[in-house]
Amino acid sequence: MRSQGRFRRTALTALSAGVLLAVAGCGQGGDRTAKGTTGTAEAKDVLLQPLASPGPGPFTASTARAADAPSPSGAPDGEPGSATRTVHPVSGAVPGLYGGTRSVAACDVERQTTLLTDDKAKAGAFAEAAGIEAVQIPGYLRSLTPVVLRADAQVTNHGYSAGSATAFQAVLQAGTAVLVDSRGMPRVRCACGNPLGPPVVADGKVAHRGERWPGYDPARIVAVEPGVKAATSLIIVNADDNTWIERAMGDSGGRDRDPDDPPPFEPDADLLFPSPGRPSEPPDPAPSDPAPSEPEAPTDPGPDESSDDFGDPLPEEPWEYEEGDPEEVVPEPTQVFPAEPGEPDVPAEPDAPMEADLGDVFAG
Questions:
Q1: What DSSP character marks residue 136?
Q2: Are 75 and 36 spatial neighbours (Cβ–Cβ below 8 Å)?
Q3: Interatomic CA distance for residues 163 and 166, integer angstroms
Q4: Strand 244-248, strand 145-149: pairing
Q5: Is the pLDDT of residue 309 over 50?
Q6: Is this model's pTM higher than 0.85 or not?
Q7: What is the rounded (10 degree) CA torsion for 331, 333, 339, 345?
Q8: Lowest mean pLDDT segment, chosen from 40-44, 100-104, 236-240, 356-360
Q9: CB 177 within 8 A of CB 194
Q10: What's the CA gap between 284 and 271, in Å, rounded?
Q11: Rounded Cα gap, residues 109 and 268, in angstroms
């Protein structure tokens, strides 16, 4: 079983990469895959896609599990004045990036497979956008894992038009059902069967088109990046009771279980976007009965002693460690030994003994 510390380091490493990496603007006009450029993906023109909307050029009918979709709030004529558009890179391996319902698939993978393979033209266009061969579609889809997004995410979407796939930039609403690969990357949008790819994020002004949903915030958009290595399972959040679920890759929920080593944070923790300090929140109140500033009385008080400016009592006599056999008892600092008979009282030189004594102490 993995340790909590190891899981924490893995999670924090993944989270640190998402916070510290800058989102680089891309000048290419197309989305490149293993099969080449599949269409135009204008980075400065982004379509907002509510979770139930099929969008332009759907490849198939929806295979997403029925869910209550929030009502869009209308077309966004411009960016809200109070928010700056920010796209946050986040690793697909971050626990809690995706959610779902225990033992229930977010998408019907078998129906998705049938709908695509029954139309050879669409199957060919889908395969080209996904970087595979058409005959590989059934195995490819079954290797993906059905989950739902828990944050608004920008992707490169692909619509079907005139026998080919055309790429465009889109922001998918949190709650959208997707199929993800072993590195946590969204690969298919279940509401339309469209293949998905990594986003092309542009610098500067971006035009958002489409329907804005309640809670949409242009400063809280994620760009999912592939995990460092292929995973065998995903840690997702159970939408029913806000608990952790470990879902095996390529499984539709039949093997869902509680993780042996759950993340060291709550499923509802906002790890993707640390909240800034709220001006309306008062600072932590001072304790009503502060502890006294005076030091506690010593457990073994001695005779009255004067103190220096730092509050430490001065010793009556200098003291030092005795050299000799290690088994001999080392005198306590408060002990003072009388001088040997016949020896004159010579003032001790504290500097030299202290250097030697400290050396002996650290050497031991």
A1: G
A2: no
A3: 10
A4: unpaired
A5: no
A6: no
A7: 160
A8: 356-360
A9: no
A10: 23
A11: 28
